[in-house]
Here is the input.
Amino acid sequence: AQTVTQSQPEMSVQEAETVTLSCTYDTSESNYYLFWYKQPPSRQMILVIRQEAYKQQNATENRFSVNFQKAAKSFSLKISDSQLGDTAMYFCAFMKRGGSNYKLTFGKGTLLTVNP
Amino acid sequence: GAVVSQHPSRVICKSGTSVKIECRSLDFQATTMFWYRQFPKQSLMLMATSNEGSKATYEQGVEKDKFLINHASLTLSTLTVTSAHPEDSSFYICSAPPGLAWGDTQYFGPGTRLTVL
Here is the structure.
């Protein structure tokens, strides 16, 4: 079974600054995906970024980037130029690749507050 | 991205009544959908996997007779909370994976807030 650990229950950052959210995972699988989802106060889950484990290059989506360290089983999210709209709960998630499983394993989440 | 809808967005019911929540994939077919439960400031807890044309697969500790799941078509799954009680009050979220062509991930519905009085 897979486990996902987010060790920071809450974080805060000033607007326009950079913040990094931590995530570690444990798995015996070699082929998988890792995700960061955002859940703003509306509670709609939004996909922020996705990383395929077989790709060495770190994924980037505009102001969001990841630091994927496969050997260390670490998958941190960096948010640059933080905006007030980034205030949300952020969940790290793991999914085994292949077949028709698609089951996600979530971390407990990090509540990020962006202060003006 | 793919769109998943849920209805209703909010429901209040009396203890002992049953409540049905619908989850629809609007622009793709979903042979599999997932149902989650989320308490305030907590993570999503997977309740069950809904499979089109077959029985749902429930996670350990989830009461099958309390949470009835029906996946009647490739675009619709329903969760019925039977004989609801105040402890069933929660936020229920569904999700569906559109498949490889959509990036092999899951897309989530907006959720349903259930309050049982």
In short: Chain A has a mean pLDDT of 94.
